[in-house]
Amino acid sequence: MMDLIDRLRAAVGAANVLTGDDMAPHLVDWRGRYRGAARCVVRPGGVAEVAAIVRACAAAGAPIVPQGGNTGLCGAATPDAGGDAVVLILARMNRVRSIDPENNTLTAEAGCVLATLRQAAADAGRLFPLSLAAEGSAQLGGNLSTNAGGVQVLRYGNTRELTLGLEVVLPSGEVWDGLRGLRKDNTGYDLKQLFIGAEGTLGIITAATMKLFPRPTAVATAWVAVASPRAAVGLLAALQDGFGPLLTACEVVSDVALGFVLRHIPGAARPLAASPWYVLVELSSGGDDAELRARLETFLARVLEAEQGSDAVLAQSEAQARALWALRENISEAQKIEGISIKHDVSLPISRLPVFLEQADAALAAAFPGLRVVAFGHVGDGNLHYNLSMPEAGDNAAFVAAQPAVNRIVHDLVHAHGGSISAEHGIGQLKREELLRYKSPLEMELMRAVKRALDPQGLMNPGKVL
């Protein structure tokens, strides 16, 4: 009787089953915080091969850890240290199966890199709006499994709202084909929603049908200096009143976060004189570029006249717009270079962002003198990345060891203001215990009941979320 690795080799070919040192890149997360072990890493080339892998693992009682681009921040794609797991890599499943411009849909496999999907949509004269700093390596399956957000949630919604249908290999090895390009389908439970945001704990997403949109012909981008988060929230409200659905993105960046980018990212340049906070604004429409920029310029003039901002720069070209966006998108990379930190990905009602920041900053400063707060995020949808470290690298080991105490301050305040401890990064290993503190016992039991129903052996990405 063949052992598991032999069965997997028979299913996908020996070259697509990695063992020994060849597994190393897949056993550590992007931040280098979680390291695990595995029996092997397997790379299927199609849904039938994924199904065969799952059936073989189920027969052997082997856990399965799905992994996309491995850009996650919560350890969801890293196996534990036991060495029993099979890591499932979907990178070979990278075909765009179809694009339907008239229906504004795209169907693609889970291993497609996000930037590739955006380009495929653009080539068809359409927009796929999911946009992340890691879009050059993040894969569609990972985006779906974490319900990724990104910078255009304000206008287009997060991954959940962009998804019309899924193809999923269930823990039994059966394949559910739910690839439907329908905006309306009221025929019972919306099963796809079980798998979006489940981090691979209920099944393996192998393909998806996603919404597309008309491609904008005009884009206007600006960087605005503001005095405080309260001023940023006020500017957001004014932008929404003035431009409605033309407002595509509204990002907030602290000067501390910008400083990291200026220090570590080659070519980064300060666009304005230093200010405590900045707001990055993007408008888009189907009209004329010059006309949209003129409208935004007029609006910004009123903002400065009313002292809602202290200065602003309006991009006059696509290259200038990209340079402004690079300041925002390179924050995570710059912070990684700066050194280890305690990261929080939280969401709050937009109106509560300023008071949360005031209270959290004060409480942390009292508990951890000298602390640096790196705050930035999607003010347009209430998602804040609230990251903490000490100025001296040597002090960070002790500080990171205090993460439970730090989390109590941050997460308790988030919860008190009606927020969530995970906005777009998921739960993974990092926040599994935290979830128990903020979800009600009933919510947790409902989640466990779904897990038991779909994955009675508990083999799908064990130790994550639940």
UniProtKB/TrEMBL annotation:
Keywords: FAD, Flavoprotein. Residues 34-215 form the FAD-binding PCMH-type domain. The keyword Heme does not apply. Its cofactor is FAD. It comes from the Bacteria. One of its GO terms (molecular function) is catalytic activity. SUPFAM superfamilies: FAD-binding/transporter-associated domain-like, FAD-linked oxidases, C-terminal domain. Pfam families: FAD-oxidase_C (PF02913), FAD_binding_4 (PF01565). GO terms for biological process: respiratory electron transport chain. InterPro entries: FAD-bd_oxidored_4_C, FAD-bd_PCMH, FAD-bd_PCMH-like_sf, FAD-bd_PCMH_sub1, FAD-bd_PCMH_sub2, FAD-linked_Oxase-like_C, FAD-oxidored/transferase_4, Oxid_FAD_bind_N. Belongs to the FAD-binding oxidoreductase/transferase type 4 family. This is FAD-binding oxidoreductase. It comes from Azospira restricta. The lineage of its organism: Bacteria, Pseudomonadati, Pseudomonadota, Betaproteobacteria, Rhodocyclales.
